[in-house]
Write a structure and sequence with these properties.
508 residues; alpha/beta; seven-stranded mixed beta sheet; six-stranded parallel beta sheet; 18 helices; 15 strands; binds iron/sulfur cluster
């Protein structure tokens, strides 16, 4: 039996000028890539399995495209993983490229395929994965070995009820060197009990908080340390909603893991000073918090009732006490925003002075509740999925023109970081971050795009004939959101964790 060669690719995206976004150094390796690689068995029966991983954002040459050519010595499976809507065209094009070069087995998975209707693109030789890898990956591998992939996997169940423990093998030294700091992303927990209407996380991972056994996360951390990883990103949204978070952090302290880490918490962390303290002692150096807005009415209309702007200052204080850099994430262009509102937001932010602030344009991400309601109201004007990356306007805002929103986005960056550099310079690293964010924004490039020093190599034009040949389209149609199956609805109904807290939030 020929070996099975799996080429796992995290596709990049096409920038406004059509070039594939690539960087000389990335910020962090894609977590899904290494999670799925580690989920893959070494063999099935007597057939050995080889896995190659490619994070396109940090590949500066096209050598990996050779892996997408038919090789008579192996059975090749090309899997485009973690594909978000703004990366969907790129994923389609890479799959079309592989098909064109004789690869028979290609599959596209991740947020877009899981939450959006891809029916018009199915049955053309590229398969779509509509569920978490834990539910379908083994079947995909077996089908590739037996000669034929199914057009669709996981249509009846999006989420695994239980998550198996996976010990993640980090990228090898050559791949780690592609990033500014050797880093690994881990998912100790998935799901979020809240219901923000713009959020894709609850559509991708559900509202029930699920986690594998703690030991697998600890084993991943130990392995990462042994393999030269220097920092960890806990990619899970709302780390503080992980029921075993304290146990994990305590175990990390006791085991002297010694790996500094970043994590994401919701704003309820303001009520958990002991947890912030524990995070700091376990090595957390940056906490990403989705504050989004300082306007309570705006937050309520976005379904983010649990954000209380009066408590944002507590987060800054608690993080400061624990030696953690607070990173506030902000959204501009909510339906109720106008010029005065955005200027006021910036002024309030300056009084709080989080060490890091990121800004995004409100984007109705396909698959979300907001996308559905904006679509129904005929508000979505952008036909190209590449642009649904939270850096530009995609819908008709009642006040702002498309250009004005883009200008405001970059102005928020330049003005906030100019302020920090002038009045709150911070550590050398914080100054570097501030200078970088300001510089990127002045160039009209989003500082959080994924890396430093963009490298133009190839562009959409190099692949557009393949997209036409394989799928008969120029642009993929804006999709309809997929409905949840009854089993996924049932899992969402089990989202009882912190239900008391959720009720309290609604009441206040
Ligand atoms: S709190 Fe964050 S992850 Fe949870 S639903 Fe809201 S935006 Fe999504």
């Amino acid at each position: 039996m020929k070996p099975l060669r799996i080429v796992l690719i995290k596709p990049s995206k096409y920038g406004v000028d059509g070039s594939v976004e690539r960087f000389k150094k990335g910020f962090m390796p894609n977590a899904t890539l290494y999670h799925i690689a580690s989920l893959t068995p070494a063999s099935i029966g007597d057939t050995p399995i080889q896995v190659r991983t490619v994070d396109e954002y940090v590949w500066q040459d096209l050598g990996y495209l050779q892996l997408l050519h038919h090789d008579p010595e192996v059975v090749t499976l090309v899997a485009l993983v973690g594909v978000q809507s703004h990366q969907f065209h790129r994923a389609l094009d890479l799959a079309a490229y592989a098909r064109h070069h004789g690869v028979r087995h290609c599959v596209i998975g991740g947020p877009h395929a899981m939450t959006c209707d891809t029916a018009s693109l199915q049955g053309r030789g590229v398969s779509f994965a509509l569920a978490e890898a834990e539910l379908i990956w083994r079947q995909i591998l077996e089908d590739a070995l037996s000669g034929e992939l199914q057009p669709v996997y996981g249509a009846h169940q999006r989420w695994a009820q239980d998550l198996p423990g996976v010990v993640v093998t980090p990228p090898g030294p050559a791949d780690l060197a592609r990033y500014r700091v050797p880093m690994l992303g881990l998912y100790p927990v998935r799901g979020c009990p809240y219901r923000c209407n713009f959020c894709s996380v609850i559509k991708i991972s559900g509202r029930q908080v699920r986690s594998p056994a703690l030991e697998s996360t600890l084993a991943s951390l130990r392995l990462a340390k042994a393999k030269g990883v220097e920092q960890i990103m806990f990619v899970s949204d709302n780390f503080n909603k992980f029921p075993q978070v304290r146990e994990l952090l305590q175990a990390m302290i006791e085991a002297r893991v010694g790996l500094p880490f970043l994590c994401q918490c919701d704003t309820q962390i303001a009520r958990e000073p002991d947890l912030v303290d524990l995070l700091g002692r376990a090595g957390c150096f940056e906490m990403f918090v989705g504050v989004e807005s300082f306007n309570t009415k705006t937050l309520k209309s976005a379904g983010k009732n649990h954000n209380d702007p009066r408590r944002y200052a507590d987060i800054i204080r608690l993080c400061g006490d624990a030696g953690i850099r607070p990173h506030f994430s902000n959204i501009i262009g909510f339906p109720g925003d106008d010029e005065a509102e955005v200027q006021n937001h910036l002024e309030v932010l300056k009084t709080l002075r989080p060490k890091v602030a990121s800004f995004y344009v409100l984007t109705p991400i396909p698959g979300t509740e907001q996308y559905d309601s904006f679509s129904k109201a005929g508000l979505i004007t952008e036909p190209n999925l590449d642009r649904f990356d939270a850096t530009c306007a995609t819908w008709t805002h009642p006040v702002f023109s498309k250009q004005r929103l883009t200008d405001l986005l970059y102005q928020c960056y330049t003005r906030y970081y100019a302020f920090l550099l002038r009045y709150a310079r911070g550590s050398e690293e914080e100054q570097r971050v501030a200078i970088f964010c300001r510089y990127m924004a002045l160039q009209k490039m989003h500082p959080m795009a994924g890396g430093i020093d963009p490298v133009p190599v190839d562009s959409r034009a190099d692949y557009s004939h393949l997209r036409r040949e394989c799928y008969g389209i120029g642009l993929a149609p804006l999709p309809r959101s997929l409905r949840l199956s009854s089993s996924d609805e049932a899992l969402n109904r089990r989202a009882r964790w912190h239900i008391k807290e959720l009720k309290e939030d609604a009441a206040t």
